[in-house]
Amino acid sequence: MSWFPGLVLGIESSCDETAAALIDRGHVISNVVASQVEMHAQWGGVVPEAAARAHVESILPVVESALEGRRPDAIAVTNRPGLLGSLSIGVTAAKALALAWGVPMLGVHHIEGHLLSVLAGVDDPLKVFPFLGLVVSGGHSELVLCPAPGRYALVAETLDDAAGEAFDKGARLLGLGYPGGKAIQDAARCGTSGRYSLPRSLARDNGHFSFSGLKTAMLRLVEREGAAIDVASAALALQEAIVDSLVPKALNAVESHGVERLAVVGGVAANSALRNRLASECSRRGVSLMVPPIELCTDNAAMIALAGSLRLARGERDGFELDVFARAPLPGQEG
Ligand code: KG4
Ligand code: ZN
Question: How far apart are CA 151 and CA 173, in angstroms?
Answer without folding.
Answer: 39
